[in-house]
């Protein structure tokens, strides 16, 4: 494996390691807590469990696809959307009402977490468009194709 391929592997793992293994394992080992957290947005327990399982699947399957380079652009697109949705659903900085009143309030903390989620999502979008100037066209032409991050 070339130095460039090793660097690509490290960077790809670095961008997904929040999800795989950490967040995925947290959902598995603290399942009841994760369900209660999901119930904040999806109140019937069966719906919360369903949404939690969808999130867990995204974290495992899409993160693995990104690291392995298998349908990695499509996986990155899904994870970018997941980051945006979790920001909107769980990092609602506007709700506590203390954003402007208290620099140490819950609103400010949620705001920074909201921005972190969106920034991480933007990083996944970068995997889709690449840094080689090819832009969005390869993804639009073949969304489930591999970007061949480790060579062909």
Automatic annotation (TrEMBL):
Pfam families: DoxX (PF07681). The chain crosses the membrane at residues 6-25, 46-68, 74-90, 110-130. Keywords: Membrane, Transmembrane, Transmembrane helix. It is a multi-pass membrane protein. It comes from the Bacteria. Its main location: membrane. It is found in: Membrane. This is DoxX family membrane protein. The lineage of its organism: Bacteria, Pseudomonadati, Pseudomonadota, Alphaproteobacteria, Sphingomonadales.
